[in-house]
Amino acid sequence: QSTWGNMLGYTHLTDTILRVIQLSSDPRLKGSQRIIKDMETRNIYKFIGKCSIQNETVESGQIDEFLSKETGLKSSDFLVNSYKLDYGVDEPFSNIIFYHKTGQQSVVAVRPANSDNPFFLGNKESHFLRLYLINNTHRLTTVEKAFRKWCKSLNLQFRN
Q1: Contact (CB, 8 A) for 120 and 109
Q2: What is the percent of the chain with per-residue pLDDT over 70, rounded to a whole number?
Q3: How far is CA 114 from CA 54, 77, 101, in A?
Q4: Cα–Cα nearest to 78, from 47, 42, 57
Q5: pTM attached to this predicted model
Q6: What is the pLDDT of residue 87?
Q7: 3-state helix, strand, coil in the chain (%, to 5)
Q8: Which of 2-6, 30-34, 91-95, 121-125 has the highest mean pLDDT?
């Protein structure tokens, strides 16, 4: 039964869907079968870290060039993922309150003064870069050090 638009059907899906895909002879599922095999054999990209950027002016070519020079690896060994989170409003949590687990009388409102969270910096959106190592996973530590150095050179905060 199709689960598209069927919440009850969707809630009954299990991991057996992965077996159905793996055992299928449908040529349209070859790509999906490869992804499932890669997941099972842990042949996945290694996450190095991420950093916040002020805007989209940082080009992935800049980081590729720097990392290649620092590590001796090729730019094809890296995947740089640039993305942004759009919060839709100036203060996403302004209308949210939290209740203490001991009772509803203890209401806590989270306000910008209480946090350095990017949600509260008055930004409607935040931009991030994520770095993954595709090949040469034995060089993970070297690449992480180089990425930290690159972030520091641009005064960006490294996170992993």
Answers
A1: no
A2: 70
A3: 22, 41, 20
A4: 47
A5: 0.64
A6: 65
A7: 40, 25, 35
A8: 30-34
